[in-house]
Amino acid sequence: MRLFGWIHVALGLLAIGSGAIALRGVLRIALSTNQVVRFLRYSLIASVVGFLPVTHRLSPIQGICMLAVYCSGAVVLSWWRFRLAGLWGPVFAVFIVVLLYLSVVSVSIRLFRYSTLFALASMESGSCFEIAQFLFASVFAVLVVLAAKKHHGQRTYRF
């Protein structure tokens, strides 16, 4: 894995850590501004580094990073522009979870596909990579449903 890959993994791990803290706040409806800003900052920086190096074709990691930037835009729009009013509260909660999922997926792709540490594990049929992706998708699908149900019709954030 090249230098940009390792930097992306390190920043992605920071985004995942701060995203887990933000997710805890989303599920408890006790989210602070600092948690959201820290998570968005690390996620956006990791996404920008994920775009590098620029190539002629869009790689899967670059596509995921681009989608993460769009999800960050939806979070900021629902939070700052619409103040989580009405439907924007669940939109905020769902996109926080989706943004965390995209961070986890981009880091796992970097590690499993481009790292020599996990190269042998990803060569088998029914590999660890596919099992890990299925488990990530399952867990985050449940978290999206929980976050959407928790924030349907509520505006009790402490910003």
Could you walk me through the main structural features you see in this protein, from its secondary elements to its overall organization?
The model has no long low-confidence stretch (mean pLDDT 88). This protein is 74% helix and 0% strand. The radius of gyration is 16 Å and the shape is globular. 33% of the residues are buried. The chain has one domain (3-150). The protein is mainly alpha-helical. It contains 5 helices and no strands. It has helices at residues 3-28, 33-51, 60-81, 88-114, 128-150.
Terminus-to-terminus distance: 40 Å
Which sheet architecture does the biggest sheet show? none
Kindly state the percentage of residues in helix: over 70%
Strand content: under 5%
Mean pLDDT: 88
Q: What is the strand tally?
A: 0
* Spans where pLDDT lies below 50 across 5 or more residues: none
H/E element order:
HHHHH
SSE arrangement:
Elements: H1 3-28, H2 33-51, H3 60-81, H4 88-114, H5 128-150
Helix pairs in contact: 1-2, 1-4, 2-3, 2-4, 3-4, 4-5
